[in-house]
Design goal:
By secondary structure, this protein is an alpha+beta fold. It has 2 domains: 2-77, Winged helix-like DNA-binding domain superfamily/Winged helix DNA-binding domain (Arc Repressor Mutant, subunit A, Orthogonal Bundle); 80-125, no CATH class. It has helices at 2-8, 13-21, 27-34, 38-50, 74-77, 80-93, and strands at residues 54-60, 66-72, 117-118, 124-125. The strands form 2 sheets. It has a two-stranded antiparallel sheet. It has a two-stranded antiparallel ribbon with strand order 3-4. Strand 1 (54-60) and strand 2 form a beta hairpin. The chain starts with a helix and ends in a 12-residue tail after the last strand. Pfam families: HxlR. Residues 1-98 form the HTH hxlR-type domain. It comes from Modestobacter italicus (strain DSM 44449 / CECT 9708 / BC 501). Keywords: DNA-binding, Transcription, Transcription regulation. InterPro entries: HTH_HxlR (IPR002577), WH-like_DNA-bd_sf (IPR036388), WH_DNA-bd_sf (IPR036390).
């Protein structure tokens, strides 16, 4: 858990992943959307890229030098349930009555997507169910 939080628990990291998942790809777009200071954003993009959450691909604006834009890797897409869960939690516990800036919806039907705990047997585990944590050391 500490290793995961060292990467995605840093301020701005999950916001960067969220914005890239929503289609923003370029540094200036990410800077404007997140409000992160340039040096911090540059650091988070580098860390997320080094960790394999994002990858870069080149693009060229006519008359300018080649630059890089950011896209999610499979590891980045695997963070989307976490973003949905954090968003759900915030709506329930922090933002009662205030609209969310992002609501996750299913592309097929448009219904709202929420995060759930589901056992490998297929049964949903509710928040009051007793969960057992196995420590592997």
């Amino acid at each position: 858990m500490a290793q995961v939080l060292a990467l995605v628990g840093e301020r701005w990291a999950l916001l960067v992943v969220r914005e890239v998942s929503l289609g923003l790809r370029r540094f200036n777009e990410l800077e404007a959307a997140t409000g992160a200071p340039r040096a911090v954003l540059s650091d988070r993009l580098r860390r997320l890229t080094d960790a394999g959450v994002l990858r870069t691909r080149p693009y060229v604006v006519p008359g300018s030098r080649a630059r890089s834009e950011y896209v999610l890797t499979d590891a980045g897409y695997d963070l989307l349930p976490l973003l949905a869960a954090v968003s759900d939690w915030g709506e329930r516990h922090l933002g009662a009555g205030s609209p969310q800036d992002v609501v996750y919806r299913h592309g097929g039907c448009g219904g709202r997507v929420t995060a759930r705990l589901v056992c490998e047997c297929g049964e949903e585990a509710g928040p009051q169910d007793r969960l057992v944590a196995q420590v592997n050391r």
